[in-house]
Design a protein that fits this description.
3 domains; single chain; 3-stranded mixed β-sheet; alpha+beta; 5-stranded antiparallel β-sheet; 32% helix
Length: 309
């Protein structure tokens, strides 16, 4: 099966090991010999399970393997993409149809953050539009003052008026039409002046939480990392996510370096840092006489970092 039908074979095996990140990484490396690659979840390409695409020789990640996502939500979204051709600059029209599926707010936020809808725009734009439409946040009045509450004289009396953006499929037709008119205007405005970018640290930690691993990489120095774990029970042990490769590096930091009386801890989970200098030192182990250092077993230590903002 592997030799004659590698695309189908690996699709099945990925589904078997969908929650095993170590086996998944091993399979990805192995199938490179067949010229097969995997792609993250994508609207119109991904289904509930890992899905092979013979034309592209690609396997698309399955949606149900993501925390809080379901088979039903995945298939409903695939059905929409298969039956309707959406304007890539009109996210609101797609959302109208998603609102009558089982896909809930938490699932939509996860999908947007994981770039499932990337063909419709950057995640910051899509989140702003969706969250206001779902009434999970108010319009960003600082960036888009045109949508702030305003005062209007009604029958000789000053009244505060709002420009509503909340949409509900059960609204009366007149209400829906008015809300959609507002939403189409708001989307155009958000696209012309996008919100602030989501930080790399926040994105990496989000991926680890919902995917079980991070897969965002950027073209930077190999010393640029995101701090993903810190254990200070003994000598502080940290895990760093290398942004250029997606690999994780484990290293220690001496207590006197990590803890500073004036500044507190050297770094926190989610920090974007550059590793400036490292050294290796012998591993300490417990013996009958206490602790002794074994110089034949070397551990990586970090002696200096720089925070990147």
């Amino acid at each position: 099966m592997k030799a004659n039908y590698p695309l189908e074979y690996y699709s099945v095996v990925f589904n078997i090991y969908e929650n095993d990140t170590k086996m998944t990484a091993k399979l990805k490396n192995e199938m490179m010999e067949f010229g097969i690659t995997t792609e993250p979840i994508k609207f119109g390409k991904s289904r509930a399970s890992y899905t092979p695409n013979k034309i592209e020789n690609i396997i698309y990640k399955g949606i149900k393997s993501i925390k809080y996502l379901s088979i039903k939500a995945a298939e409903e979204l695939y059905e929409l993409a298969s039956t309707i051709e959406y304007d890539k600059n009109d996210f609101v029209s797609l959302l109208i149809d998603i609102f009558i599926t089982s896909v809930n707010t938490q699932q939509m936020e996860i999908l947007i953050m994981l770039d499932f809808f990337k063909e419709f725009g950057e995640k910051e734009i899509l989140l702003e539009v969706y969250m206001t439409m779902a009434d999970k946040k108010k319009a960003n009045f600082e960036l888009y003052p045109e949508f702030a509450d305003y005062s209007e004289v009604v029958k000789g009396e000053n009244k505060i008026k709002k420009i509503p953006l909340k949409y509900d499929a059960v609204h009366k037709e007149k209400t829906k039409n008015q809300r959609l008119e507002n939403l189409y205007r708001y989307e155009k405005l958000v696209r012309s002046q996008p919100p602030e970018k989501i930080g790399l640290g926040e994105q990496i930690m989000f991926e680890k939480k919902y995917l079980g691993y991070a897969d965002t990489t950027i073209n930077v120095s190999k010393y640029h990392c995101i701090v993903t774990e810190i254990n200070t029970k003994y000598t502080p042990r940290l895990i760093f996510y290398q942004l250029s490769t997606g690999k994780e590096i484990t290293a220690k930091i001496k207590k006197k370096t990590f803890f500073n009386a004036n500044q507190g801890e050297l770094c926190s989970v989610g920090d974007y840092i550059e590793i400036l200098s490292t050294f290796k030192d012998g591993k300490w182990k417990k013996t009958d006489d206490g602790f002794e250092q074994d110089m034949s077993q070397q551990e990586l230590f970090i002696s200096n970092i720089r925070h990147i903002t």
